[in-house]
Amino acid sequence: MREPEIFQLSVAAAFEGLTSKEQLYAHHTARIILRQVSPEATDIFDFIMALHHSCDGQWEHLARRAQVDMTEVEKFLDYAAVFLSQILEITLALEIRSSTLMSHLMTWRSWRTVILLQLNYLLGVPSDTSQSTYYLGEGTLDNMDEVSAVSKLVELLYIFPENTRLRKSVTAEGEISRRTYDILQASIDEDEATLQEPDDQSAHCTRIRLIRGDHKEELKKINQSLSEAMKYAANCEQQKLLSGIAESFASGDLNAYRQAQRVWVKDKAPKIETVFGFVEPYRDPLGVRAEFEGILPWAEGYEESNRKGPFEKELFDIPDFASVQILAYCSSLVFPGINLPNYNDIRQEDGFKNIIFANRMIAESQRARGIHMIHESERKVFQEHRFTAYYIWVVLHEILGHGTSKLLQEDSQGHFNFDREHPPLNPLTGKPIDSWYGPGETWTGVFTDLSTTVDECRAELAGAYLIDVAEILQLFGCTVDSKIKPADVVYNLFQQLGVDGLRALENYNPSTKKWGQAHSRAHFGMLQHMLQSQNLTIRVNRFLLQEGKASLGRMLLRLHIYRCTADMRSCREFYEDLTTVHEEALGWREVVLMKKDPPLAFCHANTFLQGDRVILREYEPTVRGLIQSWAERDL
Fold first, then answer.
1. Residue 467, Cα to own-chain centre: how many angstroms?
2. Euclidean distance between CA atoms 173 and 176, whole angstroms
3. 397: annotated binding-site residue?
4. Residue 618, annotated ligand binder?
5. Is position 456 annotated in a ligand binding site?
6. Where is Zn(2+) annotated to bind (predicted)?
7. pLDDT of 37-92, one tens digit each?
8. Is-contact 466 549, C-beta < 8 A?
9. Residues 6+ apart with CB under 8 A from 569
10. Which domains are delineated in the chain?
11. Residues taking part in catalysis
12. Model pTM?
């Protein structure tokens, strides 16, 4: 494993600008940790923390005690820093298993087993080569018809899946095989309820139960901090938000969380934002259940007509956009920006927020990600223009990518949010639409494993397609008179599309033919679509950029309409064909892996109470500094 590239999420200057009440609010809402998606993850975390505490961060002392060369310890520190920054990367264990240091440290419970096993695990549908603790028990996903039936039942009971896991068990009673599916719901409260009893007349009986109390200990700690934070909330909206989140964590009922999200959306431009809960489904191989994340940022500082077509929301207020500084971002992926909430009905009825993380974006201005793929004669200019193009792309991705599209739907009362008698024409076929979302159906529920990658692809396409619009570029200070001109931004963006499309192959596993990351699959699909267009090559030609835009537009239109009309079948056929890695691309992958960029890690600050004062402590952006920052969180 290459030495990680570590960036400090510097926040001291912004923190000093907060009032003492705001600092106390920030301190209490940042205390958060949760079990992640591997059964070994908590043991690995405890192992790293125990080693740090055993030598008080003086790693040379550990090397002498273990009688190993310091270079072996440095390899371990690189691994530990990336693990902590990403919360979990099970495949990283493969790269340090042969380390001499490990042979001296084999006494740590489950960690010993993890290191000695011949691991080849990716996160995915449980199999011989992948695992996911969203799905527990042997063969939980073997019978997808049964899994779909479970999903349909909980959907009818208005039990949302984001904060659940699924466990299957089988018991034999004579010749009858009884299968039980347990829906494990994250909550502090503990109980169980049978949602469906087995049919004794059937040879294969299935019981479905709801069991509350998953992650209860972690949620108790979180709610304690939420209770303290409420004392320092700036307004009633923030108090209602934290109260609703706490209620949801206590009961497991996501209806309380959803109501809290409605309050959050209406709390316009607060000094301190609060984003946490079971939010993004990127790590669920089925794209339905969400990873817990916590983000604590604070702020640094329209539409002329109603010309919306049938595939756009009726509600599109002036975008709630904020550029903020992150104190804490507890998640496996630290995104440069977010667009939340994910619940489409809330987005349609109440709106959404767009948040860009300024101190996260700074890393992009300093990184040389994929620069070796750019022709040597253009590298200097590429690096100079990259951040501007990337920043505009991210903003458009969030506001006009994730922020647009209307899901055509029938509700439980038989009402439609479009004219059923005169349905809109499908621009792909020229005929009236013939598919839509049924009662209770959601985007993730219908598109399952494709939902996250297709939506990220659609948002990336929207940002890339619109980046040459002069009026938009003027908003970012890009004019014919600026140092970086509009033509430079567009050219650089298409270079980035090529680089990101190739770098995406790092996250493709040829043995399983699976993609490990939603954004990577999207970037490869975009590159493939452009390469399929006439007159385009991988070398960007300034005179052919309009053909590149046309290619992006055709792909964007397809994904947009598939999403709006719940046309899963057409979407899967189109997208899976586009993201299939053919033999030539496998050759590209070998070249990409030979010059793989170093892993990216972020070093977060901590806050500590000294009497009534909150003290902020930042750490050096090194592997040692990053590990120390986690150790001092006392999790």
1. 24
2. 5
3. yes
4. no
5. yes
6. 397, 402, 456
7. 456 677 778 888 888 999 999 999 989 988 888 998 898 899 899 888 876 544 44
8. no
9. none
10. 5-9+30-129+602-631 (no CATH), 10-29+217-366 (3.30.540.30), 130-214 (3.30.70.2600), 368-601 (no CATH)
11. 398
12. 0.83
